[in-house]
User: Fold this.
Amino acid sequence: MSGAGFRSRPSVAASLLLPLALIAIATLVGTNGTPSLHGTVTLILCNLIVVLGLQVFVGNSGVYSFGQLGFATTGAYVAALLTLPAAFALLQTPGLPSFIVDAQLGSLLSTLIAAAASGLLAMVVGLPLMRTSTLAIPISTFAFLIVVYNIVANWDRVTGGSSGLVSIPTTTSVESAGLWAGAAVVLALAFKWSASGYRLQATREDEVAARSIGINVMRERLIAFGISGVLCGIGGALAVHQSGVLNPTTFYFGATVTTMTMLVVGGVRSVFGAVIGAIAIATVNEVLRGVEDGASLFGAISIGEAPGLAAIGLGLILLATMIAMPNGLSGGREAGELPWLRWLGMRASASLPESYGAEPNRRPVDPAVNGALRAERISLAFSGLRVLREIDLELEPGEALGLIGPNGAGKTTLVNVLSGFQEPDSGTVTLGGVDVTARSPTRLAHDGLGRTFQAALPFPHLTALESVAVGAMGVGVSRRRAAAAAAEVLDRLNLLEQAALPAGALPPGGQRLLGIARALAIQPRYLLLDEPAAGLNEAECEKLVAILRSVLEDFGCGMLLIEHDMSIVMELCPRVQVLDDGATLRVGTPEEVQADPAVVESYLGSSFLVAADA
Amino acid sequence: MTALGQSLIDALALGSLYALIALGITLVYTVMGMMNFAHGEFIMLSAYALYVFAGLPFAAAVAGSLLSGIVVALLAERVAFRPVRNADLSAQLVTSLAVAAILQNVVTVAVDARAQSVETPTSISESTSIGSISVPNLEFVTLGLTAIVLVGLGWLLYRTRTGLAMRAAAENFDMARLLGVRADRVIAIAFAISGALAATVGVLIVMQTGQVSPTMGLTPVLVGFVAVVIGGFGRMFGAVIGGLLLGTLSSLLGAYLPEGLVAFRDAIVFTFPVLILIFRPHGLLGGEIGKARV
Assistant:
């Protein structure tokens, strides 16, 4: 819960207590208000739980789901049917099995069963849905919402059909809704700050980079989808026990737009945002509803009855937010990450421990699995264009191999093949003698293959420390130890001063180094670097060489270095492989390669020869 | 045999309608990368134009409907979608959801939440017999219109400069811009055509159901989305195939499901795409979306 190692105690306390305080205030207002206010506040708190459910999935994964209200519907119907008095059940739901009719559960038990049922449904539905792409998920979840609606609206004998259910016991009080909402806040924050939550956030920030550090995108999304289903189910169950009536449209398209608006206006990435968004929009909604019912403003302007007006208002607010303030009211930050903590003279980030307590960042040397990374006769063609032709490559543990060649020679494609991002047409990749050709990038990261990309691919909204730590979490290190390991890596790369900054705020050179740090955090046996010096200035280049040298010495991993700056390659790599037009032109020491006329002609250029002579 | 022939023609007609919806959505997606939730509302608003212009001759009302579809689509693009053109896919999707909610409720406030009936020419609801099969005239109209639209779109995309610019923009938007394709113009044209397609669908739906309601766009847009997903994002041909598949499935289920299950037709129809996505996560024709760029 504490988010140990990443944020200070005051920051954690503020992130937790501020939303809880808002909920407490809302609960107090509800308890002491008129009976109608009582009901309104209770429903707002129930809505808040659904919005928090939405936040857990959408906020952390960055993937929008339009189906979460389907889980609220599920929870609501389960809770209603388990508590409906037998006499009414006989009348409204004649097809309901008698053991459910006779259940007559109390409110707490029915809510818990509703939560379990909707969570289970979310896992079952999520299993196929989470396999689809980031853009297909919103649409397939929307389809799920319509499927749920279609079923509850037509399964008359069990759900009461489109006319719905009435006379459901109204057992949800403001206080109980407040308590549940508080618990939901704690759960949402605990998930966000868990290793699983961090891994999911990494996939939101950059899916490709996340896979390269061993994160299973589908699995992390599924976990959050399940938790989201539980929270939405609880919200639905509590709401139905407040209003006492339920029909298929209670949690349908309208409610989907409303809850989505609450989350987006508050700021999707933040639990605090979900809370303030829900309360703010609910308040606006109540005012607009008052106008809808034909209230008179200030006793002067009276407006006629106009249903739909509130929904227009909400739509406009959502639209304006998307255009003008896409990060929402909270800016996507938790309460303890907002600047006010600094005004009070407190730090938001945790102070780093003197000794990091992590074991030396090195994989145990096991000759059986620590064998060479070997590619044999790799060939690949993109729609007829042959990019790689029967390439062999061998990288011994602890060795640094330079991979050079003109643009389009196939260097990056070869690294993609080695790291599992691209399956070759033929040929095999082996790691310590084991065939790993068909393994996914995620799996290969677990096998000890780290890589960087030509672009830095930072995790902009995570801090530098979190960005690196999530690399360790990606391969299963606990969150606490990941933080310590990340601090150690950052220290070695001279990035410790920037540890608390968002990765997106680092200069390009810093982001590039951070990419290397992130790959080192998975404790790789082999590190594949794709043009690490691209875009760095001379001073940064020198720093990079020093860092890479220390990586070779301290981390003991083999290194494959794609680089156009020959001086860097010469300095670091005792062996160089030259690619040209998808085939190996030459393998040898830097001196041998430089002396080879074919290499000079294809890549280095005659001017290089002149320069070398001089 | 007769019954089967009848269902097949029904299925083809419904599939054509769905293909028109999917085309309208795909067109905007290819030039802008946005799945437009508000496309259903473009359909709904053009249908309401028929209701508003009910006093005019039907042909004039249809022209008015077509114009409304185009104008609404262009307005939405200018006011709401242009500012988020460079935002990510999800942000654009939510923006279009907001536009959908606004348009839907504007109609609710301006007209009524309940459905309104619209008179259409009686000749449309009559049937023509071919052998032993009697085909509703509306289905001929639908099939004919779809054929015209497909040929017209094909001509536009592959035989005109504008079409070339649109295809270039679809391949690589930034590069097309650098090469002098005017982005605003290409996107506006895509929206205008999309609006016209929406209006065509709106008119066809009204001719079939004889009524309009503020929520009438919801099911069509979902159908269109699902068809686009099945077909593989951003493929015109895929959208048509996806629409035809979905329409055929829906129509045949309606005809052959046992009576107790007919009510659950939508549930079955919308579960089907998920089954396809399990085996082909990127759709039947596999678009580029979701593929790793490294």
